[in-house]
Specification:
Order of helices and strands: HHHHHH
Radius of gyration: 17 Å
Pfam family, one: Phage_integrase
Shape: globular
GO molecular function: DNA binding
Helix content: 55-70%
Number of helices: 6
Oligomer: single chain
Low-confidence stretches: none
Strand content: under 5%
Protein name: Probable phage integrase
Mean pLDDT: 88
Keywords: DNA recombination
Organism: Leptospirillum sp. Group II '5-way CG'
Length: about 100
């Protein structure tokens, strides 16, 4: 059985979900897509744009790093991203040297 988790959402995400809830299916799903559909569509969009070496999961790394750059602290980022351990959170965090230099001024 899948575990239930909650995660904070931006106001934009909440608005989109509220809109989609009006078209929810009888089985309770909000979107009518399979588990691999988003990754496949992302890969197709990258191919069409001539982008190589970028995968949908890479966006998780990017989002984690950007949350830190926006000033969220470790526990806030961990809660938003759902990482269970600090070790895994660190694996997903890639801070840009130029941003760190700017903050050190």
């Amino acid at each position: 059985m899948a575990r239930r988790e909650s995660s904070p959402l931006s106001s934009v995400a909440v608005a989109i979900l509220k809109e989609r809830l009006g078209t929810r299916r009888l089985d309770g799903r909000v979107w009518n897509i399979g588990p691999d559909a988003i990754s496949q569509d992302f890969a197709k969009a990258c191919r069409n744009a001539g982008i190589t070496g970028l995968h949908f999961h890479d966006l998780r790394h990017e989002a984690t790093s950007r949350l830190f750059e926006k000033g969220f602290d470790t526990m806030e980022v961990r809660t938003i991203t759902g990482h269970k351990t600090l070790q895994m959170l660190a694996r997903y965090t890639h801070l840009r040297a130029e941003d760190l230099v700017e903050r050190m001024k």
